[in-house]
Amino acid sequence: MGAHHLPQAQAGAASQPCAVSDAPGRVVRRPVARVQAVSAVPGQAVPRGALRGRAAPLSVAPMMAWTDRHFRRFLRELTRQTRLYTEMVTTGALLHGDLERHLGHDPLERPLVLQLGGDDPEALGRCAALAERWGFGEVNLNVGCPSERVQRGRFGACLMAEPALVGEAVQAMRAACSLPVTVKHRLGIDDLDDDEHLARFVDTLAAAGVDGVIVHARKAWLRGLSPKANRSVPPLQPERVLWLKAERPSLRVELNGGIADLDAALAWLRQVDGVMIGRAAYERPWLLAEADARVHGRVNPARDREQALRAYLPYVEARLQGGTPLGAMTRHLLGLFAGRPGARAYRRVIAERAHLPGAGPEVLEAALAAVPETVRREPPGWQRPAEAGRAERGALVDSAA
Fold first, then answer.
1. 17-42+53-294: CATH number
2. How confident is the model at residue 384, as a pLDDT?
3. Active site residue 145
4. Domain 305-376 has CATH 3.40.50
């Protein structure tokens, strides 16, 4: 790999039918060509058809138990342009479970991506059709999760060892819907961790028609490391993602892993098509409050944290009336004042009162009152020089798989 100027960071086809649902109760079979793994040729683009959609300059990573509909809806009070993802949803859950639970969302959450977990191209095609019907703007396949439970289902990161199967899945999803189809994956797994394998993997996806890849810039160990350890123990290697983009310039490549703030995101955006922020966006969501202006050239929706939280209250009230417990929503708000005076008192009010019977918006009013007014009214970006300094020193927060 050649040297790159990096922002500071821690370092032959039989036709196979695919059943897809075009309308409730109606299934149409479309041919899906069997995909062969493509040999990697440095610097050579893989022939492909027209791409759908566009790369997202900035997105928030799919994170299990975190990026549910309530968190996503709150983020829309901070940023209207940043692309959001669901938690990973398995094909079995969609085809045999509660669609409203897994696919229901507020239209304000869009642009919104449905992330799928699965290894059966036919099932993935059916789920992609569901995604389109339910108003999602993109469908993404998880090839990055290393958990043992996911491996037992034969999907997630272990699919990096089967590029032809992932290519068939991409073809099936594209045949089933008109949405962009993307894949989120690691640099490699176990001993399949060199640039030749990485290039062969993405070339196979490109030949299948993938509209873009989101690369978590570290490998995954499928044995011996927990999902949590797999987010920190294998070292970050963003230079390999830059190499991939340089070698395959026609491929849409988004970088994920170790992006802690907008300064780092904007630096990486000079070299890749998009940047995905993970845990930092959950633990310190206010960092997204100036994303619309700085990344997208639009007006930021919130002038301060208090306005953002008050704008979220009508949603909270509506969901309470529908039977959602207050704690299911407030648990996502604990990081709003992270690092600021009054943050501990704010969290304490929510922790002590949100779970009580009959708890409602008054809990959030009380939590706000525990924070000094000067802090509640701080505008987006007022601390940015200090945050930029921390980023330059490499104080990075890791993102999800």
1. 3.20.20.70
2. 55
3. yes
4. no
